[in-house]
Description:
The chain has two domains: 162 residues, Reeler domain (Immunoglobulin-like, Sandwich), CATH 2.60.40; 80 residues, Immunoglobulin-like. The strands form four sheets. A six-stranded mixed beta sheet has the order 1-10-9-4-7-6, with no helix packed on it. Strands 2-3-8-5 form a four-stranded antiparallel beta sheet, with no helix packed on it. Strands 14-13-16-17 form a four-stranded antiparallel beta sheet, with no helix packed on it. The chain is mostly beta strands and 260 residues long. A hairpin with a 6-residue loop joins strand 11 and strand 12. It is elongated, with a radius of gyration of 25 Å.
Amino acid sequence: MPLLSFLMIIIVLIVAGFSGDITEYGGGSPGGYTGSPADAKNCVQCHGGSATTVNGWISSDVPPTGYIPGTSYTMTVTLTGSGKKGFECSPQSPAGALMGSLTAGPSTHLVNGNKAVTQNSSPSSNPYSWSFGWTAPPAGSGPVTFYAAFTVGKTVTKLCTLLVPETITVIEERHSRPMLVAPNPAHDYLSIYFPSEMPGSVKAELFDLSGKAVHLLFQGPLNSSEHLSRLLLPSSLPSGLYFLKLSGDALLEYHKIIVQ
């Protein structure tokens, strides 16, 4: 074979490998390309083209109320469009730490130090889905974001995220006298009676059903012998179901609150 022809073949192979030819990564992502803030890379880096955001390409059997710490769930990614398909997905903190743990499912495997999951091959069926396992992190981890990058065809990259809240469990009263929160349903204010034997400072926060803190009602020392506090609710707070978190030196409780 003439040297010039040989060099042309090598150049064509190199260009194909980095311009989005799916055969380059037909067996899955090399890892670290989820599009998360920490990864800061997605399929465009190898496949070319540009990335657009989609909704609903990641789903799960986590209930709407949120994950239970330490419980295993099934996550599913579903790609639509014409062409060979691939993905990488990872549940990460903004700093890039793995939230919980992953288990490979059918036709998938783990990459990036077991921090992400990707496909074993690149099918062309439309649509196409993969499933894999996720075990939720310990209690107190808060909402978890799944980041994923998808490739459909040679140069089509899609990005998607899924926010999974943590279930907030009501903790039973642990004091000799009950803690009272009233009225419930509430409108303008909440009155909270703290047991007299509970010392120290208290923090009262409202969380929505996604686990997001929406308002700090109070933070500071209890200032009366009866430990009765009247906390005003913000007028801009939408009606609905919330969780009141009460925490302090000797306290951690959640109460379901209906705001009308």
